[in-house]
Inverse folding.
């Protein structure tokens, strides 16, 4: 299933994500009609904290395969893996295609592009997704998650 960027917008299922204030760090609350859309919107929220996503082309693809002990751990691992790719290659992703997303495993193709840090301004440096105040909840409209990031 493919999920394309719809940052901070409204969709038939509602909001994709919103930024939340935290004392020393920053967080997002993200939404999805299903768990795949939730993970995609969490990734979009993460990258929107780092830079503007409007002009990112989808010229680069990376496959991500992860496992964790539970769904919350998988979300943290997913976001931290995307941060690792960004830190190593300066690639920002804006579309996510999940072949598998279960309680503790995922396999996804991430599409985006390398950014030129001298030309594309960074909003802030995000160091890691954390377990602090982490939650994933099922709602009447799908799923909602809260993630706090170290900055």
């Amino acid at each position: 299933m493919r999920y394309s960027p719809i940052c901070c917008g409204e969709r038939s299922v509602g909001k994709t994500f919103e930024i939340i204030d935290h004392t020393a760090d920053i967080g997002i609350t993200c939404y999805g009609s299903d768990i795949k859309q939730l993970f995609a919107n969490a990734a979009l929220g993460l990258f929107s904290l780092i830079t503007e996503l409007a002009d990112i082309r989808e010229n680069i693809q990376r496959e991500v395969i992860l496992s964790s002990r539970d769904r919350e751990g998988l979300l943290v691992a997913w976001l931290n893996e995307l941060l690792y790719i960004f830190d190593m290659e300066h690639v920002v992703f804006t579309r996510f295609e999940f072949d598998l997303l279960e309680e503790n495993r995922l396999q996804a193709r991430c599409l985006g592009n390398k950014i030129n840090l001298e030309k594309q301004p960074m909003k802030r440096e995000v160091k890691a997704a954390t377990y602090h105040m982490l939650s994933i909840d099922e709602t009447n409209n799908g799923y909602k998650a809260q993630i706090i990031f170290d900055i």
In short: The helical segments are 35-50, 71-89. The chain has a mean pLDDT of 89.
